[in-house]
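Every protein is a chain of amino acids, and every chain bends into a shape of its own. Below is the pair of lines this work produces for a single protein:
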Amino acid sequence: MVQHIHMIGIGGVGMSAIATVLLQMGYKVSGSDLKDSDVVRSLQRAGAEVYVGHAAAHVAGADMVVFSSAIPGHNPEIQEAKRLDIAILHRSEMLARIINSHDGIAVAGAHGKTTITGMIAHILSSLGLDPTVLAGGEMQNQCVHACWGRGRYVVAEADESDGSFLRYYPLIAIVTSVEADHLENYGGRAGQLVASYGDFLANIKDGGMLIISHQAYAALKDCIEQAQDRFSVVTYGIGQESRGMPEAIPQPRADLSRDYRAEDIYLAGSASSFSVYCSDKLLGKARLVVPGAYNVENALAAIAVAQEVGLEFDRIVDVLDDFHGAHRRFEWIGAGDGVVVYDDYAHHPTELKKTLQAAREFGRRVVAIFQPQRYSRTQLLMEEFGRSFGDADLVVITDIYAPPPEKPLPGVTAELLAELVGEEIGPEKVLYIGDKSNIPDSLLPHLQQNDLVITMGAGDIWQTAHALVKRLPQKDARSM
């Protein structure tokens, strides 16, 4: 009988979420991470025994070991667990045990997973369904990103990046978007990635449901048709063009059972409002306090899920109005001297474009600071990255963030990306500052009253946002 679970890489956001749930379920949890952090200290306060650094002795007494994708096979704790014949599970295998033993609501797709997971969790928790929640990022304000609930539903992210989402057998699957990313894990072929999504859809429980965006439906319609009505299909997306909106997304097949649409969209800085239709019936108005058209679409997915599990529309939008977003998703960092600073996780060309479109709605000059992540992604998407900054007035490109085991690739540099961006928007609008620690000093002379600065990337560029705020004369500019 498993009583003590040891987690290697426990400080990672996905691992810490599982650790939190396991603690609340009553398991003894220990773990290790390379460095101390707020997450590590939070887990220690919750009752976990967490070591800083990896050593074979940390595994002593464990009945099961769980490791993250960042942990190599030669890790001493992995090796010790093998020597002691302790069961070893990848993070996704432990998550699968939790999802598959309940009615899982699994959120997959290239963009928006964490936000949609947080929105669904916030709605279901606020309206008494008491779900178990395992999000891939922490939420702002009071929204929960990890908890053990007593209800029937488990709300979790399903990660397509490494194919681990194929371990999940959800009752409800959400697919937000399908784009060519993480192809290094799919033999460099987009077709293999699409086939993997098809395999994920095949895992939906009989009689279950697929809730899918218009864009993803177009990409996966052959896979959906092969399911032969084994599960119901509900689509969602933005309808006609509205103020501040990019071009409308093509509508899906007309004979689908239900389609949730947002129309009459009004975007204004950090807020938006829109009308929600289901199968051409007006359900009512919704309001958000998170910015951008992409969050309207994220909200539609969450509304569709909540409606389909039986919750009333008016109650859904009432609590959704109080959702303040996930950390590192257009997160307000600080302000001073007329400049406001935000941070965002955007690291794919589509995400960069949508984030900068949202920034434009604040009515300020937009200054984007981008840290590319991984040489492999930068190489694959270099041209697309170069065309992603049309809504920025000034762009700073810093050196590529490459987590282990990534190695530099010949000719793949941040300098080259800066040149490509300059060709698109004008070289006078682009700064290359390789060492991100130099960005605050180098950027300050270029900043103006009424600027909105946003750091973007999946690496550690958030540190630059905080460093920049410390250099600005401090005053509360939230109402500016």
Q: What stands out?
A: The CA atoms of residues 353 and 388 lie 5 Å apart. The radius of gyration is 22 Å. DSSP finds 14 helices and 21 strands in the chain. Residues 293-308 form the longest helix (16 residues).
